[in-house]
Amino acid sequence: MTATGVHLEGVTKSFGAVDVIGGVDMQIGKGEFAVFVGPSGCGKSTLLRMIAGLEDTTSGSIHIGARDVTHEDPAKREVAMVFQSYALYPHLSVFENMAFSLRLARRPRKEVEEKVNRAAGILQLTDHLHKKPAQLSGGQRQRVAIGRAIVRAPEVFLFDEPLSNLDAELRVQMRLELARLHKALGTTMIYVTHDQVEAMTLADKIFVLKSGMVQQAGAPLDLYDDPVNRFVAGFIGSPG
Ligand code: ADP
Ligand code: MG
Question: What spacing in Å lies between the alpha carbon of 236 and ligand 1's midpoint?
Fold first, then answer.
């Protein structure tokens, strides 16, 4: 898998007369774990969906690596998205759930087996490949959803609050697994959360968003030590 940076320049988004994203510039480095953090409704999912190509931009540009993908079909972008509700196919085995996109793309059987087995190894799902989703725990199901993204070997992973449906204990465990996954794959990851602890522990770089604008971007400790305003301070949690 190759890692690629993501660059946003002057990106805006309006739904009808409502401006939801108001001129966002972002530089996310190759292999970086970027986290978008901010209150509900600030535009985190909309930004992620624009990067994935699931939503048009109103203006501005998005580059993945050197490629301008602003008007590119989502299927052509080298990104894979993992959602909060990880709708797995209930009638298919774990193996077939992970193989699904490769089968759609008519990849050879041997390649499908190799890729699914490798992803299963990384996610500790090897012993569960024959099971149906209903036989798995919540954490295991979320790992299958991540496995479906891994087999596509994307240049960029997009996560939209992937842990928010899990209980607190499992969230801590999955957080460690995501950190391990990032280390193992070395892929650029963009991760959306409204959970400060998740942001602080996972991120190389945090983007704090408010009302569709980036308030501050930087390494977790820089934001913690040097917040530009009360909003960032309140969100990142430094006492000063
Ligand atoms: P977040 O993920 O940070 O909670 P969203 O990106 O989902 O925020 O939403 C940002 C704003 O855009 C919200 O006010 C939301 O109501 C609005 N919004 C999102 N999607 C649509 C849509 N398809 N049509 C109209 N408004 C939308
Ligand atoms: Mg959201």
Answer: 22
Distance between CA atoms of 18 and 74, rounded to whole angstroms? 24
DSSP one-letter code for 85: S
* 13, 20, 207, best to mutate for ligand 1 pocket (most atoms within 8 Å of CB): 20
> In the structure encoding, which two tokens stand for residue 36, read together?
């978008």
Say yes or no: CB of residue 4 within 6 Å of ligand 1: no
| CA-wise closest residue to 2 among 150, 186, 191 | 186
Task: Please check whether residue 206 is in contact with residue 220, taking contact to mean a CB–CB distance below 8 angstroms.
Answer: yes
Nearest CA to ligand 1 atom 6: 43
Tell me: the pLDDT tens digits for 100-110?
Answer: 989 988 999 99
Burial of 109-125, coded b for 16+ CB within 10 Å and e otherwise, reads eeebeebbbebbebbeb
Tell me the pTM. 0.91
Exposed / middle / buried, residue 184 (Cβ in 10 Å: 0-12, 13-18, 19+): exposed
Centre of ligand 2 from the C-alpha of residue 24, in Å: 17
